[in-house]
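seq as requested:
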Amino acid sequence: MNGYLIYRPKRDLSTFSEMKVYHDRIKRGNQDPYVWNKQFLHTYCHITQIRFTKGNINFWVSGDTFPDFSHLYCDLVFVVQDICPWKEQNHIDRTDPMVDSIEAFIDHFQWAECGEHRFKRRRRFMLKADPDRSFQPQDANGGLIDIVPFLIKAVLPLDKLRQELRAQPTSNRGAEPYVLKESIAIVLYEWLEQQASIKLTGKVLELIRRNNPQLASSPCKKELADRFSLLASG
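struct tokens:
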């Protein structure tokens, strides 16, 4: 077991009463990792750059300025519980047992059919998070927690972090996951548990999505838009 730091763009923020939630941009379409589900889902973003092991702790982070960031704000602690192979590379049925809800199907699963994440030969796998151990960590004011101070104390200097999270020059990606040793991943998890005054779980976020249809992803193709319309009406 180990862990990963997985860098992504700054999160959007939505507020529900007094609850703040950091999430993927709704209008961009596919939401990944998907937080509006009892078990958080990870299927597309950087999935081909990490190894799948049950118990791995993946820390999703964003910074102030990439690649020369000074802060890394953790918006999701994702403890891998299930590793689920797809029957088809770029398609999944609504009735497949892996699909937990119509909301997850619309926002997450169907996006395999769009051009951005289609596979030609590789088999597709999806990761489902442990619902009891995975959470979005926030401070008492609903802000995300900067993990750079912890990482520096763990003998991961800022210059090294910047270098390791940056994609190789031959890659067209902006960032690459950084492998954390098991000992560091475990202690970082414990540190975030202690630092977080608020821990949003998938059970809470799934209910918010169900009650807020405006959070639905915008379809990327007309045929998907038609299908979404039928699903929503049914």
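The two ends are 42 Å apart (CA to CA).
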